Amino acid sequence: MTAVFTITLVLLCVAGVLALVRLLRGPSTLDRIAALDVFLILIVAATTVYIAAYRDGSNIPLLVAVALLSFVGSATAARLAERRERHR
Amino acid sequence: MTLPSAISLLSAVFLLSGATSCLLGTLGLLRFPDLPARLQAATKPQTLGLLLILLGTALQLDLAGAASLALVAIFQVITAPVISQLLGRAAYRSGTAQRDVLVLDELDQQLSQDDASSR
Question: How far A27 CA lies from chain B's nearest CA (Å)?
Fold first, then answer.
């Protein structure tokens, strides 16, 4: 089972690197927002794997908090970016 | 096969397939040419990948932990489409999306009607 958790975390880390590459490359602000949203979800997924590996439920509120932050942040940034692009 | 090892096996399958779909989704996020296509790829880690990983973890925990994970899953399923819709609309209106590759463009008519009525 340890091997499963290791492989899962490695896959998630590679996915995180790919999302960060898209975050750095852009090209538009909206692409960066989408990439950041995916990156935060990958953080939630990796924390979930940690919970499974140690069978430790005390980190579950962290999942809720990060998911909530990801939603509020992306929604606000998307609205601001839309307004800025329209005024261009 | 005893029941605990069967649950472990099922959990391992869910975790691995969830992580794989996360990886494939971000690969699409990196490779696809414009924002609507990238949003379509980004949906994979946001819903399918995370839900499979949450399911695999819930099998390892007790009922209270599994219920809290279900809360995260429900919240994610509700919010992911909202973000995609906001980003897609912003991309369309700012002209970042390539309109000539769209098969059906219902928003164009709607927006030009709105513009005409607001003038």
Answer: 10
Q: Which two tokens stand for residue B75?
A: 């919240």
Render B1-66 in DSSP notation, one character per residue.
Answer: --HHHHHHHHHHHHHHHHHHHHHHHHHHHHH-SSHHHHHHHHHIIIIIIHHHHHHHHHTTS-HHHH
- Asked if the C-beta of B112 comes within 8 angstroms of chain A's C-beta atoms, the answer is no
Residue A8 sits at the vertex; the CA angle it makes with A7 and A10, to the nearest 5 degrees, is 65
ipTM attached to this prediction = 0.86
Domains delineated in chain A:
2-86 (1.10.287)
- What CA–CA distance (Å, rounded) separates A15 from A7? 12
The pTM assigned to this predicted structure is: 0.86
User: Based on the structure, what is the number of domains in chain B?
Assistant: 1
